[in-house]
UniProtKB/TrEMBL annotation:
Gene: iolB
Catalytic activities: 5-deoxy-D-glucuronate = 5-dehydro-2-deoxy-D-gluconate
Source organism (scientific name): Enterococcus quebecensis
Function (record text): Involved in the isomerization of 5-deoxy-glucuronate (5DG) to 5-dehydro-2-deoxy-D-gluconate (DKG or 2-deoxy-5-keto-D-gluconate).
Signal peptide boundaries: none
E.C. no: 5.3.1.30
Protein name, as recorded: 5-deoxy-glucuronate isomerase
Annotated family: Belongs to the isomerase IolB family.
Keywords, ordered alphabetically: Isomerase
One Pfam assignment: KduI
InterPro entries named among the record's database cross-references: Deoxy-glucuronate_isom_IolB, IolB_Bacilli, KduI/IolB_isomerase, RmlC-like_jellyroll, RmlC_Cupin_sf
Example GO biological process: inositol catabolic process
Keyword flag Isomerase: yes
Gene3D superfamilies, per the entry: Jelly Rolls
Amino acid sequence: MARLKHESISRTIGSGVKLLQHIHQQNTPLHYIELKVIEMNPGSRLQETLKKQEVCIVALTGKITVTNGTQTFNEIGTRTNVFEKIPTDSVYIPIEEEFELEAVTQATVVLCYSPTEKKQTTVLIKASDNTVEHRGIYQNKRLVHNILPDSSTIADRLLVVEVFTDGGNWSSYPPHKHDQDNLPKESLLEETYYHEMNPRQGFVFQRVYTDDRLLDETMTVENGEVVVVPKGYHPVGVPDGYDSYYLNVMAGPTRKWQFHNDPDHEWILNRK
């Protein structure tokens, strides 16, 4: 099993562009997800040509302009820090297209890829298009921004969501999994978690484990790190005094989020 926690690599990939994270098939057990986190200086540019991959470009912080040659989305992005807790803009681009990013301000961008054969349509996903949810009770509360939920028809494979969890709370809890292609009971979706903390020196704990415990790893995760979930349950615990943000990317053979709770811990949903 490849390591499940990936630290920032901070490697320059162009003038004014740093690659902070690159998750792909060669350094993880994943088959359906590739992820890049990049930092861009004002005026810097990044160009890519997609093959049989779709991509969701998330303007995590700062403002960027995105063009695919026929459409240009100018100065998208709504926040300077994710902990402003407001939705941001994203762009979906289908397979076999070229695109260019230009940083209008200092910006951090997440590129979420998944392999597919299906040709969709380029779409600007405005911040106002995100559905916002408050999930959980007691110490299981979190704020959710749905960028590409499974109810959306924009993408063929990708699901993308942001989650904010206040200090002293748990998230992705009770522990749940989605690693069986067994619909309607459960779907097979790989997942990645890109984490940020407020204040930045904070940390969270994330456990990834399977029923048979052949995979069972508990990680201390710090700001800017990525946790890979090829299978199994994957709860996150946030210490008091620090708030947690993570960007989830999920993808699999069927674009449906149908999860299965760990039966040992499902009882907490019935508390009064």
